[in-house]
Design brief:
By secondary structure, this protein is an alpha/beta fold. The chain is about 35% helix and about 15% strand.
Length: about 260
């Protein structure tokens, strides 16, 4: 029996009015959904992807909602460039209130010339964990002089289920990193939290628009929607979560 997706009602609440947010990996999937949700809530955005062209549709959709948005081509595998690119992004925004570390990969791209287990490990760890660490480091320095700031890291429920692969291990690292930075920044006004999605209807799960959303093996019998993850990202970025830091919120239709 087909599972019917929930209708998601959107109301204009502008919980992030005037906030300046940097969202990595925003061209599609969860990153795109977070960008659109933040735009609805009044934030000004700087969005990254490997190429500006990949961000064209997201930028257009954000601006259609009346929000300000800037696209930046940024390869998260280029670790040495992170401090410089971060400052460029912050300058383009005119400050930074929210960092969303969303960019992530499952494995080496198809067709890579050196698909060894070690190369795959290094690639996944570099983008999913190492880049997140150095972005958190840059943001923590930037935000420490502000009354408040927010860092949100995208983990995965795979990181909570001891998945024995580079992806799962990298996401477990993100959960630990989140707790570490939350402790480091406690008392500064900057909060650090993570979101751990389970199976979500995105290209990463090989899902395409029009395909069935049914997932009979999950208790809710469907994949989560990107918008259901972005709802949590809005909550964590807003003052509604002002007493929450160092936590990982799971959004996985009970895939435990």
């Amino acid at each position: 029996m087909p599972v019917h997706l929930p209708d998601i009602e959107r109301t204009l609440s502008v919980k992030l009015q005037g906030r300046k947010a940097l969202i990595t990996g925003a061209s599609r999937g969860i990153g795109r959904a977070i960008a659109l949700a933040y735009a609805r809530e009044g934030a000004d955005l700087l969005l990254t992807a490997r190429s500006e062209t990949a961000l064209t549709e997201t930028i257009h959709a954000v601006k259609a909602q009346g929000a300000q948005a800037t696209a930046m081509a940024w390869d998260m595998a280029d670790i040495p460039s992170i401090p410089r690119r971060f400052e460029e992004a912050r300058a383009a925004l005119g400050g930074l209130d929210i960092l969303v570390n969303n960019a992530g990969v499952l494995k080496l791209p198809a067709g890579d010339s050196s698909p060894t287990p070690e190369a795959n490990w290094d690639y996944v760890m570099t983008i999913n964990l190492k880049a997140v660490y150095f972005l958190c480091l840059a943001a923590s320095e930037s935000m420490k002089t502000q009354p408040k700031g927010v860092i949100i890291n995208l983990a995965s429920d795979a990181g909570m289920r001891a998945a024995p692969n580079p992806y799962g291990i990298s996401k477990w690292g993100v959960i630990g990193l989140t707790k570490g930075f939350a402790q480091k920044l406690a008392g500064t006004g900057t909060r650090v939290n993570a979101i751990a999605p389970g199976p979500v209807a995105t290209e990463m799960m090989n899902w395409q628009p029009g395909k069935p959303m049914d997932a009979p093996n999950l208790p809710l019998r469907r994949y989560a929607l990107p918008e259901e993850v972005s709802d949590v990202a809005v909550f964590l970025a807003s003052d509604d979560s002002r007493a929450i830091t160092g936590q990982t919120i799971v959004v996985n239709t009970s895939n435990t």
